[in-house]
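Most newcomers find our protein records easier to grasp once they have seen one. Nothing more is needed to start thinking about how sequence determines fold. Here is such a record, shown just as it appears in the course material:
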Amino acid sequence: MTSENWAERRGKKPLEAQQISARVGDLLYTPRGESLTLADPAVLYLEGAIAVLRGIGRKMAEHVNHLGQPIGFPLPAWTARPRPPRTAMEGRFCVVEPVDPARHAADLHAAYLLDKEGRNWTYLPHGPYARFEDYRARLEHDCLDDDRLIHAIVERRSGHAVGVASLMRIDPAAGVIEVGGINYAPPLQRTPAATANGRRSRQPSSAGSTPAISMRRGVSSRACRACDRALPLRGFLPQGRLDRLRRPRPSLKL
């Protein structure tokens, strides 16, 4: 791996590294035979136990349908999950709470206006919004959608809402929620709050559902371009941009 290569080249074990960016951080790499230890100063935010199911592939192959296709092992005790609660999730750097247009719309619109080129909206099916009235009307309209729960990301340091993220395509019967509709305004991008919110979105929700990351929602233009380049290497083909069917936009050169 890269860290092991650098440790040998520099002749240093353990190897200390530093992240030089707005997030900053130190990393200590220590080789231990066939394994290694990666460590850095951390704050405990979650404890739990992980059950490793061995032979899971073989178990799935043992259960097939009448066509001989593997369908996975049965879950006889499965029950439908409750819908996610409309409560705030508080963290060290930010608070993620259900959006309230009356409280959050002004902050969000002001933060999005700092994106002078409109890059944040390239892969979203609406926006940008020059007028506050238009943005608030859109936010109020989206809040009426029962299929998703929009959250505002409020930065603790400033107390202002600087982004949104949604739980969407909520399927209690299957216990699945997609994380999408993500739009980080410039003040939130490349900050510890953005990283903390991304980690939280990948954890199982308090309703017991498993988040499913939706590839059809744009997070940022850079992230989407990286996905477009990586997908063919992993045997996937892009399905196209859904928002292109809703209104014309400049063509993309992928």
Remarks:
- The chain has two domains: 2-39, 89-245.
